[in-house]
Amino acid sequence: MDVGKSLSRIDFFMLAAVFVLMFLGVMFIYSSGISSIGVNTSNEYVKQVVRIISGLFVLVFFSLYDIEKIKSISLITYLFLIFVLIYTRLFGTLVNGARSWIYVGGFVFQPSEFTKLTTILFLGKYLDDNQKDIRSLKVFITSFIIISIPFGLILLQPDMGTASVYIPIFLAMLFISGCNIKYLTYLILLGALTLVLTMLPGWETYILQSNNTFVSVLTEPRLILYLIGSITFSILLSLIGLLYFKKEYFNWLIYFFSIIVFSLILSFVAREYVLKDYQIMRLIVFMNPQVDPLNFGWNIIQATTAVGSGGFSGKGFLQGTQSHYQFLPEQSTDFIFSILSEELGFLGALLVFGLFLIILIRGLLILTYAKNNFSILVGSGIIGMIFFHVILNVGMNIGLMPITGIPLFFLSYGGSSLWTALAGIGILQGIYQRRYRN
């Protein structure tokens, strides 16, 4: 066996960045368990070491397993995890208000984490098999259904943070596949407008604190119905105009009017039937944490305080106050970045950003070496998943994103998210190792 050739097929830069991040994770999971009097109150760091060791087997397995074989079983794994998500929703363990966990043989798992990868693999297979019709509306809608099933099931748990990860996965894979940009733009505009309309009533109540005529329409079902009806009538007129006059601007009128109608419907459904009160309040305190500083705004205020107090070089390892005095909730998971930034400062945060940048850049380079379209699609989904986790987690730690309870890959305490991330890295390594094969 040619050892030199085997080693040349490993992306050491990516692996080194992953190992350093996991080492930092163990360090600050340990720090999060130290009390104000210097006593260790948690063994989470020991559990995380065990999870890292087991996760390395996951990484090696996926790097050695041929991605073409993974493709052949992608539908089975996708359907199996969908079934597990349904089971979790019905019989899973309730933790922090969400039924997202199941116990198997004394171990606890979060199936929604693993479903990210199975969805990426199956969506990649579907897009690859339908590459000739990739710009068709049929392929776009079918792809959207593939991603919407796990998205909806996870949203019902309810776990808005994990569900939101499926959006960038979908956008990244569809963009790389060559999908019609007009369809992707439609989805982005629809999502953005739905989010704004969902937040507006809370913005009026808690931040504006005065009545606004337009916002009042959004909270009255009868008025919403009238508004939807009038815009739908405009769509019908535009459709008639398109059929008779064949002018392109009628197409665009239908395009934008339909976005408004669907966003009105979705925002009403989200407020009334999908989102819980605490989830809506998370969006409100994102705009102004002082609306509820001792309850829903507490997390974001304490997290930004920890990050800011670290200064340029930090207070020193184990010298942080926000975590050791237990001001930070979920500090070993959602807010691990705040602990790191307080104790290592801006330089520590810069180190974390640099390590993730190495992973993302090397991931993009691996895609240029991929020998088939399926590998490129799957790789783009994995990169999109990692990128969004970093942006959303760091963003909520520094007050630029709403609190969603999403972990920071490789650093946050937890097995399911770590194994998912390492499996993704393993798949990227597998693509890189097979770059010379025909």
From TrEMBL:
Pfam families per record: FTSW_RODA_SPOVE (PF01098)
Coiled-coil positions: none
Superkingdom to which the source organism belongs: Bacteria
Signal peptide start-end: none
Keyword ATP-binding on entry: no
Keywords: Cell membrane, Cell shape, Cell wall biogenesis/degradation, Glycosyltransferase, Membrane, Peptidoglycan synthesis, Transferase, Transmembrane, Transmembrane helix
Major subcellular site: membrane
Annotated PROSITE patterns: FTSW_RODA_SPOVE
GO biological process: cell division; cell wall organization; peptidoglycan biosynthetic process; regulation of cell shape
Gene name of the encoded protein: rodA
GO MF annotation list: glycosyltransferase activity; lipid-linked peptidoglycan transporter activity
Gene Ontology cellular component annotations, sorted alphabetically: cell division site; plasma membrane
Protein topology in the membrane: Multi-pass membrane protein
Organism (species): Thiospirochaeta perfilievii
Transmembrane segments: 12-33, 45-64, 76-95, 101-124, 136-154, 160-176, 183-203, 223-245, 252-270, 344-367, 374-396, 408-432
Protein name, UniProt field: Cell wall polymerase
Localization, UniProt: Membrane
